Amino acid sequence: MLDLRQAVYAASIASKALANRPCGNTPDELSMADMSAVVDTLRIAKRPEDGHDYSTSHRRALLRAWRAFLEYARQAGLMDHVPGGFALNPKFHAIAAVEASEDDIGRAIPEHVIARLDAHLPQLGTSTAYESGGWRATDFARMYQVAYTILRDTGRRPGEVTSLHRSCLEWVDGKPTLLYDNHKRRRHGRRLPISEVTAKEIESWQRELDRLPPVPSCEQWLLPAPGQRNRPRRGHMTTPNFCNRIFRAWVDELIPDLVDDRLDDDGKPCAYDRTQIVPYGFRHAYAQRHADAGTRPDVLRELMDHRSLDVTMGYYKVSLSRKQDAVKTVARLAVDRHGTPQGFGDALAYEVESVAVPYGGCTEPSNVKAGGGHCRIRFQCAGCDFYRPDPSYLPALEQQVADLRADKEAAVAMDAADWVVRNFDDQIRAYSKSADEMRHKLDEMPPEERATVESASRELRKARSAAAFFPVQALTTRSSE
Known about the structure:
Helices cover 48% and strands 10% of the residues. By secondary structure, the chain is mainly alpha-helical. It has 3 domains: 2-75, no CATH class; 121-254, hpI Integrase, Chain A (Orthogonal Bundle), CATH 1.10.443; 320-475, no CATH class. Strands 1-2-3 form a 3-stranded antiparallel β-sheet, covered by helices on one side. It has a 3-stranded antiparallel β-sheet with strand order 8-9-10. A hairpin with a 2-residue loop joins strand 4 and strand 5. It is globular.
């Protein structure tokens, strides 16, 4: 039934496109140019209910439905009077799949936005009063809220969540494991360790399912879809229904005051772009949380069920536009080893004239040219006049000071030479001076500006942690947050 509806819809789009053609209402005069006009219209098709663009995958599905419609009509003899030139040519009549650009790879939903969504979770699913099969509207809302929780906590694709089986949860050695199917790569029966909180949420929903009226032919699914009274779906919740209707209505209509971490010209927080909040963004956010916490790329690759490590590394990268905005914010706040302001004139100078080193930026020309690999006094940055730390390095500086103090205590306990202990004291004072100067600047800022600088600093730390040539994770033992 779904394929027929899609074919009819594709045919209606084609009909409207042909109505604007000179011979569009004369079937025996149609040509390849007319077919090109139809495909061009499919390439820009929009949802009739709200005028929003269809996804590329949906437009490609419409083209497939149009092709199937034409093939059936030709085989049934319904288009014998239509010239053969009115046909799809694979070379010219295709809708290319959109490859993820570097700007799209790390499009994670920010944590402060997720917290806002969590606060309004009880409203998810309340935009519809739909009831079916003995299920009340509140039962459906509860199911949608469980789907959201699993999406948020597990980083699985929406289709992998909506198709979870009723028996998707196992406990192995006292630890919960989620069983799911990776439909995209056709790898079924995958296992993912999850938190006990998420597992208890799934178990709670399983118990609620036991009390609800059973849905015929849907008993094996964790998130069943009873369907309408006269048109049972006989399956699990559909991804388009959850993503495009239920989730979208919740985000767009039921959640007030979603703000960004950027400020407008008046110094007030900008409204967050709600179109960026999509269910797939929870997968990016899941990966980003692991990257920020120092999870090794090979471990994250297993968690994300990727074949290639290159794909996984994309999740460690902050998008280029956000990185550029972050650079613009912190570049002017750099200091030298004496704590004197030495801000960069612009973002380009920050990127070109310096290189990231363990505890700040370095502007020594030969070291910059070598990508940070040509320093004669490595790991003693605080004693170099080319040293340029900025607020994004504060956690690294604090960690270094703590490590130096621990090393000094060990040296004293070992009765080391005075010059060894003195070297630790000198480094502690130097690094502390740089950190104190930056903290002083942050304390003098208005709260809104300080929040912006701290957010930009987090983004730059994420970007640096993704750089393969510099294993920042090996140099610190705590999160950069």
